[in-house]
Amino acid sequence: MERLQSRELVENYELLASVYDDLLQDPEAYALWLKYIKRFTKGKRVLELASGSAVMAKILQDDGYEVIASDISKSMQEAAKRNYDGPYMLIDMTDIKLDERFDLVLCICDSMNYMVDEDILKRAIRCAYDVLDKGGVYIFDMHDVKRLEEFKEMYIEEGIVDDIAYQWTIQSDAIDMTINEHFAFYLQDKVVEEAHTQRVYPKDTVIRILRDIGFKVTCIDDFIKDEKVLFIGEKI
Q: In this predicted model, what pLDDT tens digit does every residue of 141-158 receive, in sequence order?
């Protein structure tokens, strides 16, 4: 009889961090983010939140921006060393404690969707506002609500990345307004699993919160058509 593998549920990005670039990197999206950063940002001082493997931080650094990368995940901070040699801090985007002020606060790859209720989302947006200089901008993308319909039926992807077999599933919950991802990595002696839940917000809700906090808002509905909405908040 085949021996059953033990299963271990780990923290978000504990294992995914090591294969993140191979599995999830999107060069076309990075180019699109850079386009809008250049269009809306006047200065060069950047705080990137949820930097992950710091590919975007490296792109900005190479383009002459002064970047501080950050993430809440120590595993991602370690993984970023492959791509980026600038400052990288461990920061919870809902509790930023920095004296420095920035021209741009950036948060990409739908990381803001990890703010799982409206109060947490407000806290994250307020933190970004507080570390911006006057005239600075907060740029972030979030899932389009159409993604709830896209993943109503479970999406399943299987393959091999960095010699590790994996299964990746995505399914939405229209009642909770969430997108739920599950990763299973089949190692030699065990299965390592990660579960990620993201909350999807109507764009009008996000715009209202941004304005209530004090931002002048630009919304790019078709940033990535039917997938991502881009929000630009200017601190006035």
A: 999 999 999 999 999 999
- In eight-state DSSP terms, residue 76 is H
pTM above 0.90, yes or no: yes
Two tokens at 225? 């058509």
**Residue 32 to residue 30: CA distance in whole angstroms:** 5
Domains, the chain, ranges and CATH?
A: 6-14+147-198 (2.20.25), 20-143+202-235 (3.40.50.150)
Q: Is the Cα dihedral 158, 198, 151, 37 positive or negative?
A: negative
How many whole angstroms separate alpha carbon 75 and alpha carbon 17?
6
Are 191 and 6 contacting, i.e. CB atoms less than 8 angstroms apart? yes
CA 23, 26, 28: angle at the middle one, nearest 5?
Answer: 160
Give the tens place of pLDDT for each residue, 3-36. Answer: 446 666 556 677 788 888 888 888 899 999 999 9
Q: How far apart are CA 69 and CA 81, in angstroms?
A: 11
Strand partners, 45: 66
